[in-house]
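pasting input
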Amino acid sequence: MIRRLSALYRNLFRKERLDRDLEEELRSYFELVAGHGDPAHLEPIKESVRDIRTGASMDILLQDLRYAFRTLARNPSFSVIAVLTLALGIGANTTMFTVVNGVLLKPLPYPEPDHLLTLWEKQLSGDALGTVAPANFFDWHEQTRSFAKMAALDPYPDFILNGYGEPQRLAGAAVSGDFFSLLGIHMALGRDFLSKEDRPGQGRVAVLSYATWQRQFGGGDIIGKQLDLNNTGYTVVGVLPRDFTFVSKSADFQARNQFDVWTPLALPSPPEPWQRGTHPLRVFARLKTGVGISQAQADLDRVASNLARWYPKADKGQGIAAVSLKQHVVANVRTALFALLTAVGLVLLIACANIGNLLLSRAAARQQEMSLRAALGASGKRLARQLCTESMVLSMLGGLLGLLFACVAVPVLVRHLPADLPRTSEIVVDKGALAFTSFVSLLTGILFGLVPLLQAQRVTASASLKESGRGVVAGQSYLRGALIVGQVAIALILLVGAGLMMKSFRTLLQVSPGFQTEHVLTARLSLPPLYLNGYKFGTGQHRRISAFQRALLERVRNLSGVQSAAFAAYLPLSGADNSWSFEIEGRPPRPPGVSDIMNYRPVSADYFKVMGIPIERGRAFQTTDNEDAPLVVMVNESMARAFWPQQNPIGQRVRFSESKWRMIAGIAGDVHHETLATKPVPEMYVPYAQVPNVEARPTIVVRTSAESAAVIGALRKAISETDPNVPVDHLETMQQIVSASVSQSRFRTAVLFVFALLALFLAAIGLYGVMNYLVGQRMREFGIRMAIGASSGAVLRLVLGNAAKLVAMGIGIGLVAAAFLTRLIASLLYGVTSSDAATLTSVSLFLAAVALLASYIPAHRAAKADPSQCLRYE
Amino acid sequence: MSSEQSELLQGTLDLLILKALALEPLHGMGIARRISQVTGGTFEVKAGSLFPALHRMEEAGWLISNWGESETNRRAKFYRLTKPGRGQLQTETKRWERISLAMASALRAT
């Protein structure tokens, strides 16, 4: 080994001495044989000795590299264009891959992430997954055998922090004792909850997120301190690690994937009977080692059928579904991100084809050099190796620059990602991205390096056959044509994808949300516990909330620029949601396990006026629909159609899981509540003063006469004048809320649009380059044609016709490929099918127009051919 | 080149060189001559095969070389076996004997 290394050292660094030595040895040999040293014999032998030396291939590589750099430096404009094109392509790919890697590919940032599951309640008759009743969680935990740990999270608690400046709303989560240990999280400071703290009446302890600790408490000494949360003392026992982000699907967690304060869930054991009817919990489980997900599912099915027998009223027809945590987190974005990654990969392919074309032109120019080297004894393999080295140097330089590009682009992109994309904090340029870039650079180097290799074969052949350049050019033009057809086809695929997305997005934006989005300002308030009369179920308990609302509305209505104002518990398109089961008076009770469900929306009197929601029949709520008035509700059109198809619902009575009946007073127009793309579902409005539960986070909606933003300051002032202890968050205009609700769609449309434009641009450049080259080659022919009477118009048509043939072939192939590929993004489209004829036609025409424009310049040049000049060249 | 001259089998040349050097150090010409003598002219080693082999075996550590005087008082590079070289000679010899025995019996079989 040491001998080898020293030989390597000698061979690489003492080469001249070794060569002199060898020369002398061989000379003396031939003098002994023939009496004279004929140098003509020496060279091949010297060469073959050099080839067996240790590190000979490395030596050749260094030679080739040096040569490659020299060649590239001699032709800087070519090199710069090639490297920049590659850097752009590879950089865009690395950036997109980094996003996909962070969101989809990387394992979740917990130990043994494959063992983590989410568990859901599921009606056996349907597919929808539901959150879990505390009593069910208790039973699952007791009766299953497949799980090492099971924990639950309640994402609803909200805390108002007092004593640290302005009262501050903190997003809270209540978790059962095993939650952090199930995920495998160790506190940065302090400790996890103790199991004795996870009991009713004991849980006056809290864990803070790292960010909250830094922001609210300056990162100071905090463990053991008492915090005033909702006017109750909590002792801080721990701080979560900085990099702990609880990955979640935002829609589930009401767009708050960062929790500030964590407290014990403290469920009673055994649970109260009513805890079988409310379903707030997200349940997580860690599989026992060696247990698979299907085995766990069988275990859960057994438990579910037991529960259905024991609690038919609540659990009949109910199953339990296990979904891997990762799948649950990224389910919504998988298709879109992979589509974008494919798109950017296609852009890189077009870039490769362009560089392949450039190399072809260069190869033609270097034909003499290659023939000369072949004649001097360079083997075909050696020449191929040289060409490969050059391609690799190009692609590696491109890759390096591309990586720099990605390092800059990724943080920018992350800032502009839709807020509801999960795991964005895990998007960083890391080892995975580096590996990907190296791989892509290598692959692109091979891809476009192949082109001149094919060429090199022809060159050596032609050199040996003593052919003129003509045959080469013919072969080349075939290869070039194929490259152009490929580029056009790929560009078409991307354009079709982008076109469909754009049409879909436009259709989405044209959906009328069912209310007037302009000039509405909204602000969410968090009422301190002093407003709540405990959490007792039933109306008439929360007069303080009504009093606060009346007082605030009074002030706000008197502000200049305000037309009207009202309260709502859940705004449309905000991600917040609540649904209840109900029954209709006079109809037979539904069988166990089946219930009618509607979205439940507490609103105050002027809500419909502020939002511009039409009243179809009957009346809207009035200020007189208060705690002491007869109970009323309003239904939306969908609900009226679904439950009273033949009747007038007004005057009918419904009730929730309580004894009091509520009369339907009016029918309101449908509103897109969940997303613009989903159809409105049955909804029921309840006067805020008559809600049966506690809605302690009212959102005030204000219709302004002019620009909403102008009222923000006055609104804030009015709130703090009404009660300085009420924190405000989510101060947004309704337009912002609508816009945020389509941010994913907007993001993927915009990104795909940019990729498609890039593809179009590159393909047009490629076409221009090729046509220009071909016209240059055929100038003499055009000259002859014109000399024997062809008009310049005929030559123009000839060249354009050639280009058109290539483009038409490319479009044809592209359309077929697009028909298959766009089917994969069908789930991302709204209001447009993946085979939308209008899009396909207009995109094809657009591409054809751009392509013909790109080839018009060379065609024009051909038409200007001067016969006398062209013929003089020969 | 005589038509009867056998192509040097891969590995055979190494063994012949090792064998030639087993008695005394030789220069390149001497090695070629010695091989020709001991094989009765069956193997004529050409410079194009000899020198790459010598340099390869030297890098492998079986031979070492130094400059000396040839019989005609010219400067020439002499090669001699090292200890690993002698070991290699033994293994190669054994291997070759096994192969030739096996070949012989294979050819005798009907």
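fyi The domain at 12-108 of chain B is CATH 1.10.10.10 (Arc Repressor Mutant, subunit A).
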